[in-house]
Amino acid sequence: MSSSSSTAAERDFKREFLKIFFVLFGVLLICLALFFVNHHENNKYIIKTLQLNGSAEEGDALFKINCVGCHGITARGLVGPDLHSITQRLNDKEIIKQVTGGLTPPMPSFEIDPVNMSNLLKYLHSLE
Ligand code: HEC
């Protein structure tokens, strides 16, 4: 009697364990799927931006609105670093990640469409 009730408890435990296992597995799969979709969207954004040939003047205007508060009116640095030789130190993809990623506070992440991102890149290249 006591041995049969313990196997029932064991079966219950197994069932619970499997339930939890599959829920966690499902959550993991969803996370992976979201990660790949996000990665794919980021790549599409970068490819689209790099295909465009932006305007340095438009980029300059954009810089004056969004970036001078921290990088200075002539991009010589203030709170944020001097950006004059930035295109020698970082490639375009890295600069896009810096501007859109929000990975280095206090610099915020900017939601910026590919055309304007391309303009900004052109402006940063013109600083050399
Ligand atoms: C709130 C302040 C702030 C604003 C606004 C800001 N930045 Fe920054 N930025 C920083 C800081 C601080 C860093 C240094 C981050 C670090 O490396 O820790 C930085 C770093 C960078 C870098 C990398 C520099 C390097 O030497 O690696 C680039 C490129 C850059 N910013 C571009 C921009 C552009 C373009 C804009 C406008 C769209 C902008 N930033 C707006 C504060 C700011």
Would you mind describing this structure in some detail?
By secondary structure, the chain is mainly alpha-helical. It is 72% helix and 0% strand. The chain contains 6 helices and no strands. It has helices spanning 2-51, 56-66, 68-71, 86-89, 92-101, 114-126. Helix 1 packs across helix 6 (114-126) and helix 2 (56-66) crosses helix 6. The longest helix has 50 residues, at 2-51. The termini are far apart. Bound molecules: heme C. Heme C (HEC) binds next to helix 3 and helix 5.
Major β-sheet profile: none
Counting helices, strands and paired strands, the structural category is: mainly alpha
Mean pLDDT: 94
Helix content bin = over 70%
For the terminal residues, how far apart are their CA atoms? 85 Å
- Named at the architecture level, the CATH assignment of the largest domain is Orthogonal Bundle
CATH C-level name of the largest domain: Mainly Alpha
